[in-house]
Every structure is written in C-alpha cells, then in structure tokens.
Amino acid sequence: MRYELWIALRYLRSKSRTGFLSVITYLSVGGVTVGVAALCIVLSVMNGFETEVRGRILGVDAHLRLTSINNVGIPLDSDMITLVRQTAHVTGVSPYVFEKGMIRVGEHAEGILLRGTDPKTIGEVSDLPQNICAGSLDFHSGELPGLVLGKFLADRLGTIVGDTAVIFSPAGMTSPFSAPVVRQFVVVGLFQTGLFEFDDLVGYLDITEARKTFLRDDKIDGLEIRLDNLWNAADVKQVIENKIQLPYYVRTWFELRRTLFSWMQIEKWMWFIVLSLIIIVAAFNILSTLIMVSMEKRRDIGILKAMGSQRRAIARIFSYQGLLVGVVGAALGLFLGWLLCFLQLHYKFVSLPSDLYFLDALPVKMQPLDFLLVALAAILLSYLGATYPARQAAKLSPVDAIRDTG
Known about the structure:
Elements: H1 3-13, H2 20-60, E1 64-68, E2 74-75, H3 80-85, E3 90-105, E4 108-117, H4 122-125, H5 128-131, E5 132-135, E6 146-150, H6 151-157, E7 164-169, E8 181-191, H7 196-199, E9 202-206, H8 207-213, E10 219-220, E11 222-227, H9 233-243, E12 248-252, H10 253-256, H11 258-296, H12 298-306, H13 311-347, H14 368-385, H15 387-394, H16 398-405
Parallel strand pairs: 4-9, 6-8
Antiparallel strand pairs: 1-11, 1-12, 2-10, 3-4, 3-7, 3-11, 5-8, 6-9, 7-8
Helix pairs in contact: 1-13, 2-11, 2-13, 2-14, 11-13, 11-14, 11-15, 12-16, 13-14, 13-15
C-alpha cells in the first residue's frame, strides 16, 4: 500500500479532538450514498415506465410499417409480402387498411379509427388476440361482418358483444352531392390494451370488409412487420428499402412515435442531472471536511514535507480521502438502490391505483449501465471536491506549518 493511501485511511478513521470532523465525514459519505441510491431508483423507475409503455404500444403496433407516399396503396397481387418475409430478422408480416370514420350504435355516435386486418396473420405482428377481453376475434361468426372495439370506446357507445353498429365511411364523399358509404356490422369482441389512445378510439374489422367500406378496390394501405428484436428495426428498415422502390417506404417503431420516446429519454437524463445535485452537495461537504482536516493536520503535513515528501504526495493524501469517501458512498448507495428496487420488483410495496393507471405497481427495470454511470459520476464528483483542499495542503511550507503548530 502506498503510504499516501495509508495516511488517508488513518485520517478518515481518526477522530479529532471535538469529533466534529468525523461527523462531517460520515455526513459526506451519507450524502453520496443517498444521492447514488436516489439516482439508481429514479433511473430504474424511468426505465420501468419506458419499457412498459413501449411494450404495450408495440403489442398493438408493429416494429416496422411499410406504406406508400400519398397513400397510393399496395396492389394485392404484389409480391411485397413474400419479399419482406424473406428478409433476415423478420418473424411476421400482416397487411392492413387504416382509415377514419364514424360509428353509431343506437342513439350514440362517435369518431373511430378503423383498422382492417387479416385475422390469420394479425397474431404474428400484434398482441391483439391476447388483448381480447370479451367475445372473440372471429369476424365471420354471423350474418353481418364482425367488428372488434376498444373497451373504452364500447363503454362510451353503450354497446356490448352482439350489438349491431353502423359504420359511416367518408370514402364515398367525392363531391358535395355524394354520400358516405354506410355499412352494418355486429360487435363480436372487445379488446383492452391498457393504452387509452387505443382503447378509446380504435376498432378492428376484417381487411376484406375494410377494403369494401373504404373503397380500396384491389389495394391495401401497407404492411405491418414484426422482428425478432425491436432494436434491429433501423438495420432491417435499410435492408427492406434497398429492395423496394418509391413510392414505398418503411418507418420504424421509434419514427412512428418519435416525440413520445424522445421525450422519455430526455426526461430520464433530466432527472439524472437534477438528482446529481444531491451528490454535488455531498462533494461540497467533502471539500469543507478536507479543508478543516488540512488545517488540523498542519503539523503532520509540515513533518511529512520536512522528511522529504513531495507536493504531489501531500496532494494525493487528500485526493485519496475524497476518492475513498466517493467509493464508499457509491458502494453503499448502489447496494441501497439495488435493494429497494429488488424489493419493489418482487414485493411491489409501492402500488398504483388500477383505475387510474394501466399498472398495478410502480414499474422497475434495473440496468447495469445506469448503475455504473451513477457510481462513476459520484466518485468523480467526490474526487473533484477534494482537488482544492489537496492543492492548498500541498502548498504549505514545512517550516511555517511546524512553527504555527509548535
């Protein structure tokens, strides 16, 4: 062990005459511990929310969406589906038609976003079959074509499975004297994803009926694509676009909701910066502690320099003290943060009201990289807090130091 580190350890363990410095040292370690634990917990909660939201969105939406400029559509006889299925990392492909319309059940009428889908392949790209909370996904179970509605939308319409609904499509309104396409459907199922924007606005119908309702003739609006790993989306997008030509193009799950996911990332790192202030306060405690230590140990510093210790060695003694406080505080903080996150993950002692949120407990996802960055930031700030007193101690003259304390 270097003698500078040995002296630093002795200074941290030794008690001053009043015991005041030891208390401040413990407070400094405690400040770093609390700051690191708070950062780890908050980042883990943010990761948990991001993972839950992303998982639920991608459960009803695709990893990639292939569509066309100006919605010119994709011909049914196109070999686009086969081409996409043969692309590496692609695990599912399903055609879709997407349009706005109006739905009326009895005296209630609401706007609706209708998605025509293929019931044979929708399970490859979506969790819709698992999200059915009433009825089924069988669009051809009766005389009328079937319709599956979001639970909240059905509640607002006052409808249940088996009711008849009328869909009004604006596709037929090509002139002031034309009328919308009006068709009857039977509600065959209700779905609930936990995301309000889907459960309150979206309805599903068979893609063949959607083409008739929205006058798509022999075309579909695009393809939904599921991958084996959502983080391969950008690479697979590039591969597919190299195979196709305009007017067709591909958008990734991140591009489809860039604002939401970008804001979640910004919010996460803003919390990182804000909560780092706790560690900065602890660093100031370290600075004040080491200044007082250097004042109390002037005679020791003078003797060390008289025995031949270099300025750098004296500076290292106090730098090591700040570094040790940072390391101990970071280690304790990491353990405390991990412990609380582990308890929440397994025992869910912080619950959320299920009638207000789509989760029953505060979500937590611990990522080793976040913990590592927090620990490094805490140690760095602690070390920087020791820089000034270390330099000041190194400047002391051995003669003046011994004389002033003699």
